[in-house]
Amino acid sequence: MSIEPQRPNVVLVGKKEPIQYVMAIIKLFQDGFEEVIVRARGKNICTAVEAVEMLRNVFDRNVSVGKVNIYSEKLQDERNRERSVTAIEIVLRKPRQQAEAQG
């Protein structure tokens, strides 16, 4: 998968607590996006899945999971060696009228 410019409806998952990403996703839906993409690499994949499930089971049952892409990316480490890192992309959907009604 090639590197593309960051889109405004993408949440990149890192080392924060899952609730931080849940709030970021909710904010994007409130801003009017019908689709939010959650991306993570390596050890952060678990956090991404946990955030999506927390969102769907606790905060908003109207959010559905669209496509889930699992792939590997080639990265350079600090010694300039190439290594492969597993990544995930989870596409979340919420119809616009539901996104606007909660905003």
Structure description:
The chain is α+β, with helices and mostly antiparallel strands. The chain has one domain: Translation Initiation Factor IF3 (2-Layer Sandwich), CATH 3.30.110.20. It is 34% helix and 34% strand. A four-stranded mixed sheet has the order 1-2-4-3, covered by helices on one side. Strand 3 (64-76) and strand 4 (82-93) form a beta hairpin. Helix 1 crosses helix 2. The longest helix is centred in the middle third of the chain and has 15 residues, at 45-59. The radius of gyration is 15 Å and the shape is elongated.
Q: Which structural class best describes the helix and strand composition? A: alpha+beta
Task: Report the total helices.
Answer: 3
Q: Based on DSSP secondary structure assignment, what is the total number of beta strands?
A: 4
Major sheet: 4 strands, mixed
What is the CATH-assigned architecture?
2-Layer Sandwich
Spatial separation of the terminal alpha carbons: 34 Å
